[in-house]
Amino acid sequence: MTFLTQLSLYLWFLFIAFSSTFADSDTYIVHMDLSSMPKAFSSHHTWYLATLSSVSSPSSSSISSKLVYSYTNAISGFSAILTPSELKALKNSQGYISSIKDMTVKVDTTHSYQFLGLNSNNGAWPVSHYGEDVIIGVVDSGIWPESKSFNDDGMSEIPTRWKGECESGTKFSSSLCNKKLIGARYFNKGLLAKNPNLTISMNSARDTEGHGTHTSSTAAGSYVENASFFGYAMGTSRGMAPKARVAMYKALWDEGAQLSDILAAIDQGIADGVDIFSMSIGIDGLELYNDPIAIAAFAAMEKGIFVSTSAGNEGPYLETLHNGTPWVLNVAAGTNDREFQGTLNLGNGDSASGLSFYLGNSSSNEFPLVFSGACDDEKSLKKVGHKIAVCLDTNDTLSAQVYYVGNVKLAGGVFISNTTDLSSYIQSTFPAIFYNLEEGKKILDYVKSVPDPKASFHFQETVIGAKSAPKLAGYSSRGPSSSCPFVLKPDVMAPGDRILASWPSNSPVTYVGSQQLFSNFNVISGTSMACPHAAGVAALLRRAHPEWSPAAIRSAIMTTSKELDNTENAIKDIGSNNQPANPLGIGAGHIDPNKALDPGLIYDANSEDYINLLCALNFTEKQIRTITRSKSYNCSNPSLDLNYPSFITYFNSNDTDSDSLTMKEFQRTVTNVGDGNSVYIAKLTKLDGLKVSVSPDKLEFAKQYEKKSYKLIIEGPRRMKDVLVYGSLTWTDSSGKYSVRSPIVATSLSP
Ligand SMILES: *[C@@H]1O[C@H](CO)[C@@H](O)[C@H](O)[C@H]1NC(C)=O
Ligand SMILES: *[C@@H]1O[C@H](CO)[C@@H](O)[C@H](O)[C@H]1NC(C)=O
Ligand SMILES: *[C@@H]1O[C@H](CO)[C@@H](O)[C@H](O)[C@H]1NC(C)=O
Ligand SMILES: *[C@@H]1O[C@H](CO)[C@@H](O)[C@H](O)[C@H]1NC(C)=O
Ligand SMILES: *[C@@H]1O[C@H](CO)[C@@H](O)[C@H](O)[C@H]1NC(C)=O
Ligand SMILES: *[C@@H]1O[C@H](CO)[C@@H](O)[C@H](O)[C@H]1NC(C)=O
Ligand SMILES: *[C@@H]1O[C@H](CO)[C@@H](O)[C@H](O)[C@H]1NC(C)=O
Ligand SMILES: *[C@@H]1O[C@H](CO)[C@@H](O)[C@H](O)[C@H]1NC(C)=O
């Protein structure tokens, strides 16, 4: 070897060393085919390490530091830090199926139990022993173990099947767990792989953000007397399944959240033995075979674990939901019948109550009222001074009005508006009350009728029984599911708007003026809050019916949910001007736990049914094996027609022959879990412009667990004129005890 070549080799090594250190390394989640693992390897872990080692450039850091996680249950595979050339080499390795780059994930940022009809005399709570011994795994931002919601008074010993742990870490000792909070683990290797210099401020399962404490206590919080939020929502707080156990898997950090960590959390939860997963997180725009949460949920489903997920907060636009995965429950967010109010006591002795969620204290001081029109001019608002501005909004400028009035620091604001979404403005940092035009008229009349109008504020009023409720929240994401448009999503709606639940006591909940406020409870909104409500209900059903599959539990929740609000009218959609909500917003309707306990019939499905669906989606073998974790599967029976408790079909052909009709057929099988001997009759609502029929329209069961099949046929034009037509099919038994309802959606959208 000449000197020259030695030099160039040296330079080449230098170059390689340089490029592998500084070239764009990324973390990848890699799916492997376990059945291709050579027999020589004692475990999948050693095989993954050997595979990594064989593709790594000689100069690169140690193999074990490249491996981020080796997964066992949630997927077959690992996550690792790879350079582009290493990834390329890996793709040619034996057993490689697929990979995706690690990604950042977003979080879908006491009274609701009563609203759902849960009580200790009858129904789901007593029958299910309040979810006793069911273990809910919450993948979230950690937990505040000192919260009273996680006290274990009166709870029995931890079941011996539980394999979880209470990991110690920063400000978290393993003795902080108890018989309620039975597990606490944390995962941030993926986050650190992305950003090696990151300092994790709270390196333990302790929650510094609040989200995880809130969702865990919503699902399974113990009883806490005298819970309230600055005087609002006073009462005893408790979760949906007050005797279920909680295991926290922290994967969402103040510093960020990575898919690889969430996968590790689910992987561990499956190994630990959770019964239910509550995951108020999601990723937009991924195919099922690229969505690690969907893939991990498939593994969980196969083990009988029920997975509840959030629809997302990107509504009211169509096709915005995430977690539109056929084998999970997808939950939309609704309001409940609790309203937060304030009262304006007028100088003439009259008073006017309006919506308010101001957290400061009331004072009896009277201030002059100044009518300030549209409150859109900061200059003239400044002249109002230490008085109360009365603002009138008839042109959708409320948010600007609230901003201006808050900015110029007056004694307060009275906002009179015709916006349909008044309640989303009411959490103000300065004294304010909000009225619709009708309620506000009294104030306007008073202000205009006397020369020196004045008033005082009173806050912290909570009203139960508000009509109408529930309503679909405007922000709740809508279907159809982009990852699987052939299954109607979301599945159901649950309370998600202004939910009171526990909060870390040192994490500020909000501020008043410039003062930070702290509380052991917080009231927050989002599909994140709806998801744990449904997870808690699933825990009650799991306890009451231990033999039911996740699909059976989901079916029970769906077919018994309500389409009517507390005024017996169709549930309204705040996102569409209080027009009736449709199934692309609320799925089958608002959950009704007591009814779900005893649904009469269920629509069951197992992994084979889901695989038949994946086959019919024309996924490649690699894509399917990514989801099924390389288990051999059989595509001899492809079908988009999953045995699901809802129906969605597309009349969207670009065929110009508009006269000819087309026919869509669905096949369903129901299992009788109600009374042994029973007869069910089909009832269909009308779907405009479509012809719908059921055959047979009568199902006779001789015994429990008997199965019967039927067909639903929808005939319509090749392309519908309307974007959306919907209705429902209800099977009612002759005793009138059971009513098993499925929504039907026909749309001209493109799947
Ligand atoms: C991490 O810190 C080291 C040493 O302080 C620095 O050289 C490097 O550029 C930092 N890396 C990143 C990604 O910030
Ligand atoms: C709750 O509040 C009531 C009335 O103020 C009081 O009597 C009771 O002791 C309180 N309970 C707890 C557990 O603090
Ligand atoms: C309200 O009053 C209570 C008790 O007087 C006090 O502790 C609290 O700080 C006050 N709240 C605000 C926002 O000033
Ligand atoms: C509010 O009133 C204005 C003017 O009357 C009208 O144009 C607007 O559509 C109304 N908005 C709602 C949401 O009713
Ligand atoms: C309402 O707002 C629009 C723009 O948002 C503006 O063009 C229009 O003039 C406003 N109407 C009234 C009556 O203020
Ligand atoms: C799958 O492929 C078949 C045959 O090409 C086609 O008829 C069908 O529409 C495809 N299905 C989907 C969901 O794209
Ligand atoms: C695939 O499944 C069908 C029934 O669904 C069965 O008849 C067939 O034998 C299976 N094929 C293989 C290769 O397992
Ligand atoms: C119909 O045509 C539109 C516009 O060309 C296209 O976006 C859409 O995908 C087509 N729909 C179907 C079902 O082919």
UniProtKB/TrEMBL annotation:
One of its GO terms (cellular component) is extracellular region. Its EC number is 3.4.14.10. It is found in: Secreted. InterPro entries: Peptidase_S8/S53_dom (IPR000209), Peptidase_S8/S53_dom_sf (IPR036852), Peptidase_S8_Ser-AS (IPR023828), Peptidase_S8_subtilisin-rel (IPR015500), Peptidases_S8_3 (IPR034197), S8pro/Inhibitor_I9 (IPR010259), S8pro/Inhibitor_I9_sf (IPR037045), SBT (IPR045051). Residues 641-745 form the Subtilisin-like protease fibronectin type-III domain. The active site is at 140 (charge relay system), 211 (charge relay system), 528 (charge relay system). One of its GO terms (molecular function) is serine-type endopeptidase activity. Residues 27-107 form the Inhibitor I9 domain. Residues 1-23 form the signal peptide. Keywords: Glycoprotein, Hydrolase, Protease, Secreted, Serine protease, Signal. The keyword Ubl conjugation does not apply. It holds the Pfam family fn3_6. Gene3D superfamilies: 2.60.40.2310, 3.50.30.30, Peptidase S8 propeptide/proteinase inhibitor I9, Peptidase S8/S53 domain. GO terms for biological process: proteolysis. Residues 131-564 form the Peptidase S8/S53 domain. CDD domains: PA_subtilisin_like (cd02120), Peptidases_S8_3 (cd04852). Belongs to the peptidase S8 family. This is Tripeptidyl-peptidase II. It comes from Handroanthus impetiginosus. The lineage of its organism: Eukaryota, Viridiplantae, Streptophyta, Embryophyta, Tracheophyta.
